[in-house]
Amino acid sequence: MKKTEKDIKKEFQKLTTETEPKSNILKDCFYAFIVGGIICDIGQFFNNYFLSKGVPKEEVGTYVAVVMVFIGALLTGVGIYDRIANFAGAGTVVPITGFANSIVSPAMEFKKEGYVFGVGAKMFTIAGPVLVYGISTSVIVGIIHYLISLF
Question: Do residues 32 and 89 make contact, with C-beta atoms less than 8 angstroms apart?
């Protein structure tokens, strides 16, 4: 007897459901919250450190962003960030270190294809859409703010 496409889809769905890893959402949310909070605490530490060293308040955010991106890129480069991300999930994606990871990971993966067609072309495959929509949204908000300030 020949299986129909509908039977094959049902069988595939059943097999997928049986082999799919079960996730404990409460535990995953807890780990994401804790690790994301620790990353933010590290950022706050650097914020307080730079303020204590006399960095002007207007510039501290830039300093902290640079340090956190560096830490995220460094940990990605040595393979630690991926292990943290496997444990904490979304807790590592939201902070700025997740942005650094989203740029460094593809760059490392495609390095073997060369610096132009590998690293240069593939570096922003994950972060590119975030940049495009972030910049586009900031331009729209800026225009709206400007138009509101005219009245």
Answer: yes
**Residue whose token pair is 């940990």:** 75
Q: How far is CA 71 from CA 23, 46, 61, 64, 127, in A?
A: 29, 12, 15, 10, 17
The whole-number pLDDT of residue 119 equals: 66
| Residue segments in the chain with a per-residue pLDDT below the cut of 50 | none
Q: What string of H, E and C letters represents the secondary structure of 88-104?
A: HHHHHCCCHHHHHHHHH
Give the pLDDT confidence score for residue 34 in this predicted structure: 93
Write down the pLDDT at residue 42.
Answer: 94
